[in-house]
Design goal:
single chain; Lipocalin; eight-stranded antiparallel barrel; 2 helices; 9 strands; about 15% helix
Length: about 190
């Protein structure tokens, strides 16, 4: 009598039974539930345009700034260009900061940003400086309708943003008026439709 086929069949059945017991039989594994996202995270998602920037570290007189904040599920990107005009209306000096960060919005309304990549200008305004990966910043978050305020309490740095949405009166992401779509040109006689 040949015991090898019987032994192999028994081994396969035992192995199948072991796997079925480990996985709960034929019932498929249930994926873990997605964590519930806090309401504040839902509010901050999207595109924001800088309307005001205040800091005690930069001269306010004749200063202009432009900035945007893009917030996705786990990451955000902040870019701000700042310039000072002279009396003749020409740009006398400028600086910028730009970066992409992972973030956490805590239950106490504090936004903790962790730098992934970023750069700014050195204090002399002449050379770009790359930001170290992992640098943390904390801002208190306040919402007022379609407005967002980020306040860093330790030095009173404050960013105020307004939401940019697709229903913002025909404006594109940069706040410019959208051009109407070009009308489709009808096919000429003899062309496929």
């Amino acid at each position: 009598m040949n015991f090898l086929p019987a032994f192999l069949t028994s081994a396969v059945l035992a192995s199948s039974l072991s796997i079925a017991l480990q996985t709960g039989g034929s019932k498929p594994a249930t994926p873990p539930a997605e964590p519930v996202r806090p309401v504040a995270v839902e509010q901050i998602l999207g595109a924001w345009r800088l309307t005001s920037f205040e800091t005690p570290n930069l001269k306010r007189e004749q200063r202009e700034q432009v900035g945007y904040l893009l917030v996705a599920d786990d990451f955000l990107s902040l870019e701000c260009h700042i310039g000072w005009m002279n009396d003749a209306g020409a740009r006398a000096a400028s600086t910028f900061f730009s970066g992409t960060h992972s973030y956490e919005l805590r239950g106490d309304s504090v936004l903790v940003m962790t730098s992934l990549i970023g750069s700014t200008m050195d204090p002399n305004g002449s050379t770009p400086v790359f930001e170290p990966v992992g640098r943390k910043r904390e801002y208190k978050v306040k919402f007022n309708g379609a407005r967002l305020v980020l306040l860093r309490e330790k030095d009173q740095q404050s960013f105020q943003f307004e939401r940019i949405s697709s229903s913002s009166g025909g404006l594109d992401f940069y706040g410019r008026k959208k051009q109407p779509p070009k009308p489709a040109t009808p096919p000429e006689d003899g062309e496929d439709r």
